Amino acid sequence: MQKKDQTKDGPLSGLVVADFTQLAQGPWATQMLGDMGADIIKIEPVKGDWMRHYAYGNLYPEGESISFVSFNRNKRSIALNLKDAIENEIARNIIAKADILVENFRPGVMERLGLGYEDMKKLNPALVYCSSSGYGSSGPYLHRPGQDLLAQSIGGGAALNGKKGEMPVVTAVGQADLLTSLFINQSVLAAIYHREKTGEGQKIEANLLNSVVGFHVQEITAYLHKGENPERSESGIPNPWLGAPYGLYTTKDGYVAIGMNSVQKLAQVVGLEQYDSDAFASNNIMEDRDEIRLSFDAVFMTRTSEEWLKTLLEHDIWCSQVNTFDEMVVDPQIAHNEMIIELDHPTIGKVKTTGFPVWFSETPQKIYRSAPLLNENAKEILLEFCDFSEDEINTLTMEKKNT
CA spacing 20 to 30 A to 29: which of 154, 249, 277, 355? Predict the structure, then answer.
C-alpha cells in the first residue's frame, strides 16, 4: 500500500455534520465521515453520550470508556440541554450551518424538541437530515426498544448460525448497528451528491431491522425461491445453504478455514481417497455434507495449521489461518494495510485502534483529533456557530462545569 500524504485534506473536507447520535450505529457513521475530513460537531446531553458510561469489558482507561473512544475520534464535543430554550437555540444555530444532520433518538424525540426535519428544512433547506432507529418511524414496533441483538433476532439472521438442533447464534460483533452505520454513510453521501446537482436537501431514514434483512439478501432470496427454512448442519458447517467442504477445521495446534473448494481436489491434496472421484467434483455438496466434513476433520487434526497452510496454498486451495486477536493485530497483511494505528488522547495517552478501511489517493483520511472529552470544544463551537459574546460563552460553559 502506498504511503498517504498527510498534508492533504480528506475528501469530505468542508462538510459540517451536526451529530446528535449516541451508542454505536450513529457514532460510527459520523466517525467515518470525520475520518474523511468532515467537521463533526457532536452535540451531547449534559451528562454525555450514553456510551461514555458503558464500555466493553468494563474497560475505562483513565476513566474514559473504551467503547466511546472507539466510535468518536475526529469530532468536536459540545454538551447541550436541548429542553432549555437558549441551548436548543444553540443547536439550531449549528444545524443552520450544517450540511448533514444525523440522529438516532427514538422516533418522535427530535420533533418534540422542535428539531424535527420539517422544522429544520425551513431553517436550512439544503440540509441532508438522517434519522436512524430500531425498526423505523412508523409501524407496529414503533414503541418497542430497538437494539442490535433484538434486530438480529427479528431479522432472521440468528437462525442461520450454529448447529442443527442447537440454539440460534447471533454475531458477537454488533452486526445490525455497524451495518446501519454503513448504510447511513452511503445514503447521506448520495443525498449530498443530489444536493450538489439540485440544491435540495432531503430526509433519510435508516433502521437496524432493515439493515439486517437487507444484509441477508442472498439467504432470503434463496428461501423465497425454495419455500423451506434452511437447515443448519449437525457438524458445524457455518452456513446452512452451503455444503462440504466449507468451514473451519481443527488442527494439531489451532484451526484452519477452508473456503469453497472442490471436495475431490481437497481430498486429493489431503489424501482422502474415498472422495477422489468425479462424484465429488462439486465445491458445494449438500448430500452427506456432515459425514464428509467429519472425514476431513479427522485428517486435519494430524498436522499443525502452518503445515496444512503450506501444503494447501501450494495447491491453490482456498484456505487461511484462523487468527485470534493477538495473532490478527500482528498479521503481516494487517500491518501492511495499516489497519492498527495509534493516536494520542488527552486523558488516556496513547490509544491503539483500528485504521481506515478505504484508501484515497488524493484526499487521504487521517486523525485530526481523538475522541473528545465531554463539552471539550464548547467555546470554539459557540464562537463559530453562534453570535455569543465571550462573557455569555464563559457563563454557559461555567454552568456546565457546575452541573
Answer: 154
pLDDT at 2 over 50: no
Residue 311's CB is within 10 A of a number of other CB atoms, namely: 14
Q: Which residues contact 144 (CB under 8 A, 6 or more apart)?
A: 134, 135, 150
> String of b and e for 359-374 (b: at least 16 CB within 10 Å)?
eeeeebbbbbbbbbeb
Distance of alpha carbon 174 from alpha carbon 161, whole angstroms: 15
What percent of the chain shows pLDDT beyond 90? 76
Domain containing residue 132 = 16-215+359-402
The average confidence (pLDDT) of the chain is: 92
Assign residue 291 the CATH number of its domain. 3.30.1540.10
Q: CA quadruple 58, 61, 66, 72: dihedral positive or negative?
A: positive
Tally of domains within the chain: 2
Q: pTM for this one?
A: 0.88
Measured CA distances, 392 to 351, 369, 380, 389, 397 (Å):
35, 26, 13, 5, 9
Residue-wise pLDDT for 311-332, tens only, equals: 999 999 999 999 888 899 888 8
Residue 179: band (very low, low, confident or very high) from pLDDT cuts 50, 70, 90: very high
* Residues contacting 324, CB < 8 A, separation 6+: none
Please report how the helices 390-402 and 378-385 are oriented relative to each other, as an axis angle in degrees rounded to 10. Answer: 140
315 in the same domain as 369: no
Distance of CA 233 to the CA centre of its chain: 28
CB 317 within 8 A of CB 269: yes
Q: Which of 43, 39, 188 shows the shortest CA–CA distance to 113?
A: 43
Helix, strand, or coil here: 59? coil
Domain boundary among 296, 322, 348: 322
The least confident of 138-147, 201-210, 290-299 is 138-147
Give yes or no: residues 29 and 123 share one domain: yes
Cell 485470534: give the residue.
324
Contacts of 137 (CB under 8 A, 6+ apart): 107, 131, 205
- State yes or no: pLDDT of 83 exceeds 60: yes
